[in-house]
Amino acid sequence: MFTVLALALIPATRYYQIDQPLLRLFRGAGAVDPLALHLEGEFVENNLGTEQGSDGSVTVRMIAQQYLFVPHCILVPAGVPVHLRITSADAVHALAFNGTDYNVKVLPGTISEAQLRFANPGEFKTVCREFCGAGHYAMRSALKVVPREQFPVLQAGERGNCAVQ
Ligand code: CUA
After folding, report:
1. pLDDT of res. 10
2. Is residue 9 part of a domain?
3. H/E element holding 125?
4. Is residue 123 included in any domain, yes or no?
5. Range of the domain at 49
6. What does the alpha-carbon distance between residue 9 and residue 14 come to, in Å, rounded to a whole number?
7. SS3 at position 153
8. Which CATH number belongs to the domain containing residue 51 in this structure?
9. What is the predicted pLDDT for the residue at 158?
10. Looking at the 3D structure of the chain, how many domains does it have?
11. What is the pTM of this model?
12. Residue 47 forms part of a structural domain
């Protein structure tokens, strides 16, 4: 009897390993592998940051990880729709911009999306609002909003760069 119980307990304590393939199956299209973010797919390093669409709107791709946001400083134009796509490399985080109501929960394995808009040029502190470990309170970065006409054409590789040309 004891042996049976012990055997049944093994999978119960390893549920997080067994769950992985199943969860991936159910998550479908929005799924990303937190361990392969830097290797392949949408969240490789030179695809992060701000990318401008032909309609003038921008897409911002970011990674949250203990204990920083990548890119560390992002640049967006004022007054245009900003499509945010963010995922986590490890724990649960929450991306917030001080002075705004935006607060986006970020989970490993999934892509969180949000539609943002910053009416005026300015600088916002980007902070983590979900306790994610010892370095949580140091998890800070920045978002710079520049006038639409001053927004530079960013090439892949400099999309995460805050410097205005
Ligand atoms: Cu990340 Cu708190």
Report:
1. 53
2. no
3. strand 122-128
4. yes
5. 31-150
6. 9
7. coil
8. 2.60.40.420
9. 79
10. 1
11. 0.80
12. yes
